[in-house]
Amino acid sequence: MIGVIDCGVGNLSSVKNALDFIGAESIIIKDPNLVKSVDKLLLPGVGSFKVAMDSLTAEGFVSEIKNFADTGKYILGICLGMQLLAETGYESGITKGLGLIKGKVELFKSISLRIPHMGWNGIKLNNEHPILNNVKLKADFYFVHSYFFNTSSVNNILTYTDYGSEFPSIVCNDRKNVIGIQFHPEKSQKQGIKILQNFLSL
Predict the structure, then answer these.
(1) Under a CB-based contact definition with an 8 Å cutoff, are residues 108 and 153 in contact?
(2) Which of 64, 79, 117, 172 is flagged as catalytic?
(3) Average pLDDT score over the chain
């Protein structure tokens, strides 16, 4: 059973539809007390780091998510959900994140490239992980974001993506059970669906 956390800032239906498509049993979690009852957690999100963290804190999700990670069970953060895994975010001021993966979320700075980074782009392997099994890295994945996860260690970076310069597009913690994906796998066609299938199999 995959629990999809509703932190009030995301289109949960597209993620839920993708999970239904691959045959995954899933529920949308609005009550933090239900977190401990699922096998895996998925944290989707779009929008503001501060708004999302304020919502998770107010609803009592923060300690439950951290406790879940400590058990060694798998967590997948998507787009903003990936960024919330960081220690700190700098959108609309400085906000403390979940702190499950070392690093901070910073604004893209580019004179020549459009911000937000929006559209299709590829990924380049940095470290192996089962979530990337049989995924074609040269395929295009769908991105929409103005901020990126600046990790503290290259050991936590599974893939890079080039947008003027390279930034981490998939990250994980040291135990490899907390994974963050900057692009939207549920919108990235066959290769994105393969990533979700791999997550289901972890």
Answers:
(1) no
(2) 79
(3) 93
> SS in 3 state form for 56-96?
HHHCCHHHHHHHHHHCCCEEEEECHHHHCCCCEECCCCCEE
Residue 91 annotated as catalytic: no
The pLDDT-based confidence of 33 (bands split at 50, 70, 90) is very high
Which residues, at least 6 apart from 153, have a Cβ–Cβ distance to it below 8 Å?
102
- CA-CA distance, 154 to 102, in Å (whole number)? 11
Distance CA 55, CA 51 (A): 6
Known catalytic membership, residue 145: no
pTM for this predicted structure: 0.94
**Nearest 5°: phi and psi at 26?**
-145, 155
- CB distance 95 to 49 below 8 Å: yes
Q: Is 7 noted as a catalytic residue in this protein? A: no
What is the DSSP secondary structure assignment for residue 36, as one 8-state letter?
A: G
Least confident of 43-47, 108-112, 140-144: 108-112
Q: Which domain holds residue 123?
A: 2-201
| CATH number, domain containing residue 85 | 3.40.50.880
Number of domains present in the structure of the chain: 1
